[in-house]
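**Tokenised fold:**
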Amino acid sequence: MDIDEKKRMISKFTFILLVSILLAVFITFNATYYFLVEANKLSKVEYSENAVENISAISANLKNIRKKINQNFIGEINEERVLDEAIKGYVKGLDDEYSQYMTADEWEQYKLMALGNYVGIGIYMSLDKNGYIVIVTPIENTPASEAGLKSEDIIVEIDGESAVGLTTEEASTKIKGIEGTKVALKILRDNEYIDYEIERKEIKVYHVSKEMLEGNIGYILLRAFDEGCSQEFKTAYEELVNMGATKIILDLRYNTGGLVEEALSIADAIIPKGETLLVTVDSRGNKQTNKAKMDDSIELDMVVLVNEYTASASEILAGALKDNKKATLVGTKTYGKGVIQSVFPLDDGSILKLTTNEYFTPNETKINKQGIEPDYIIEIEEKRR
């Protein structure tokens, strides 16, 4: 077998593999819902004739593109990267900022971040209304805060490559790396570009911090809804009560969300048993109501601080407390991310994350693209930390 014939066989195999993966991505999965943390088995997925025709069109186009590449491209082809980027492009075509394909390595890194331990610079990020990567807040005592990064800084470039159009997960993957190495960031702040070179370090995230204020008021700052944060919150609450707290301030400003089940766990500890915590509606219009299951143990008067970066799981908690009259919301309107993603694992360890549900407050108030209005609107003069 000569070299040209080998190349043709490799190209044919790669094309078949690519089409197989694309078919697998959109035909059958075992779904795992973040907000339920349990497997939901998909017994049957129906596809229209148009969907089948689209897959056939993709197959034909890919075959033609691959032929042109083989005939004309002078560079080396990284087959694994080609496959990954093809699938990512397909999912990106959904035009949904929260749906995403992750390779096995990317998914492992994502899970590590949810546990609160990873190697990076220590920032929370979000997409602003224009789709740019914006720093919500740098984490205290991390390379990011020590370097001088601030809330509302826009990340323009990462290691010399444009960050425009990236998802927060994609930007996070590029910023993270091996401990001791450096990442170069170009930041836009107040119409001025600033260059940073920051050394990566192991980041330990403490989700909750507490403080006793004057007047026996306990203050709890909840930074993110990562794994274990609900227990951290309950511990902080009990410690403040033991210190004499008679009222609680819960600060959800700059908290962009995380694991929905953690938010529901906190809500369940505050809201009386049997009351509604969350209403979700899936792609077929099926409605599900999540209700409190535990006898509420947190009874102190509570004020919740929110702002335009209070998003997702934070809005679930804030909305549940507001509608059940267990807290007064103070601040500015929240971000408005009222959709939930489900994770579909694939055989090679990669995953497909899809937006599958919209959620509403217990009173069935819409959150997505609208946000939650606080009970008392107070503009925050200084947003940067």
Remarks:
- The chain has nine helices and 21 strands.
- The domain at 208-377 is CATH 3.90.226.10 (2-enoyl-CoA Hydratase; Chain A, domain 1).
- The two ends are 65 Å apart (CA to CA).
